[in-house]
Design goal:
Organism: Methanoculleus methanifontis
Largest sheet: 5 strands, antiparallel
Strand content: 35-45%
GO cellular component, one term: ribosome
Protein name: Small ribosomal subunit protein eS4
Helix content: under 10%
Pfam family, one: RS4NT
Family: Belongs to the eukaryotic ribosomal protein eS4 family.
Radius of gyration: 18 Å
Length: 242
């Protein structure tokens, strides 16, 4: 299977030039979907730390780039929404988010903010011993109590500076009145307050109505595209880039 795809058919959310070259790196299989941005493309096209694939591999081989607190060595590893990317030698830390146009972009954040990550709970299961396991959308699994529900979001530590890895430090329930970022569809990148959740008894996706108070707008999306980011007020660190 090819490790490259034509730039002309690359996902629009990557926000890369389409005609400067014929091919671009393809995302490797991983916790995010196929639209996740390969870290090699991000380093070259967005950050400018490499000019070609060879330089990307050299940077990663030196373990100079951390993704969610762990060194990344695969240039095709996909970056998805709310992944934390750190480049310690430069003292730079970024959170991957959608901008207001629905493109994946990197928002620079303080070092302290890079020690935790916002995660959506995909589902939860009961494992051996009757313990509850939360299955997070970016591929990690953690043990917790039964307080948390699928579609909620939790903030977990990333094990930096001797900190315990994947300790829950905050919790944003999927509930009316709380704040979410939309991560799919035509409203991608919008941050708004949930007004109503309509659950259906069929295969039709549940619908969510949200209000963007800053724009005086209400809109509707499906439950799958809703990613909880705060309680009753937008978290100040989640600034949406233009």
């Amino acid at each position: 299977m090819s490790k490259y795809l034509k730039r002309l058919v690359a996902p629009g959310s990557w926000h890369i030039p389409k005609k400067v070259q014929k091919f671009v790196m393809k995302t490797a299989p991983g916790p995010h979907n196929a639209d996740a941005l390969p870290i090699g493309v991000w380093l070259r096209e967005h950050v400018g730390l490499a000019q070609n694939a060879s330089e990307v591999k050299k940077v990663l081989h030196q373990r100079d780039v951390l993704v969610n607190g762990r060194a990344c060595k695969d240039p095709r590893m996909g970056l998805g929404v709310f992944d934390i990317v750190s480049i310690p030698k430069l003292g730079k830390h970024y959170r991957i988010q959608f901008d207001v146009r629905g493109n994946l972009s990197a928002v620079e954040i303080p070092a302290e903010s890079a020690k935790t990550r916002l995660c959506k709970i995909r589902n939860k299961t009961t494992v051996k011993g009757g313990k509850v396991q939360l299955n997070l959308a970016f591929g990690a699994n953690i043990l917790a109590d039964n307080t948390y529900k699928a579609k909620d979001s939790v903030v977990v530590t990333l094990g930096i500076d001797g900190e315990e890895r994947f300790r829950i430090v905050d919790h944003f329930p999927f509930a009316e009145g709380n704040v979410a970022m939309i991560v799919g569809g035509k409203h991608s990148g919008k941050v708004a307050r949930i007004i109503e959740i309509t659950r259906t008894a069929s295969s039709v996706p549940n619908r969510v109505i949200l209000a963007d108070d800053s724009a005086g707008e209400r809109f509707e999306t499906i439950e799958e595209y809703v990613f909880m980011v705060g309680r009753s007020a937008i978290a100040p660190e989640l600034e949406v880039s233009a």
